[in-house]
Design a protein that fits this description.
Radius of gyration: 19 Å
Shape: globular
Order of helices and strands: EHEHEHEHEHEEHEEHEEHEHHHH
Length: 303
Amino acid sequence: MILIVGGTGSLGRATANRLLAKGEPTRIMTRSPEKAGDLKQAGAEIVQGDLLDKASLFKACRGVNKVMASAHSIFGRGREASKYVDLQGHIDLIEAAKNAGVEHFVYASAYVFGPDFELVPFFQCKQKVEHHLQASGLSYTILRPTAFIESHAHYLIGRSILSSGKVALFGKGERVRNFVAADDVAKFAVLALTEEKLNGRIVDIGGPTNCTNMDVVRLYEKAAGQNAKVRRVPAGALRVMYQLMRPLHPGLSQIMQFSLYNDLKDWPFDPQPLLDAYPVQLTSLEDWMVNYIGSRSASMAVA
């Protein structure tokens, strides 16, 4: 039995669907079981749990051979702030897995482009959990994806253009960065959960698309058939705002801080060494967007 914590998120859901398609017994731990109806119908076992509830973690890990941790709270605040969910919650999950006799633990971390990014609390949490997992005695695989298309390209940029024709960018949006599709990362997660070739490995994962945030805007403008009204928050304002926002809304604060460092220089990723080692098909941002808009149109037509 494979447990996926955060199974209703982009990466968790994509991984679960691939595991279920392979006939792998899969358990999904989620705070909101009603969001996992499609996974239950596909054959997954659904359990309610919360990374802030140790008892639920022990319960979810019972009878499990392998665990994948793909939940996060980068936007969280208050009780759900990143320091509680992304740090302590995952440390508690690792300990629960260890006590339950889990054979292998796959952790979805994050790719850190440079030392500036290590100052972002979210990445600090990720690195501390990595170190805890490596010292835990558990067999492990650590996956370090670049920016997910689903959140960083679509949720933060494209969705607003499609719905309102407007978008706010943190910074100028003219620096190159890398985007990866959650389903492409899921391919490596499944490999780590079903084979041993990734045991003890840290795998940096990026997509085939290196582009600027303004390039993302232009792609969505093309899809929307109109120019978007773009409002930019300058770097100087970001530097002040993320510090002021930290005690009020740490999630938004670290998104601003992350965006500030993205705006300082180009941060490309070369996926070729990854593909040489693990030949998989990677999805470009444009192909992902075409597929998303196509499936959205089909759903609207059915409705």
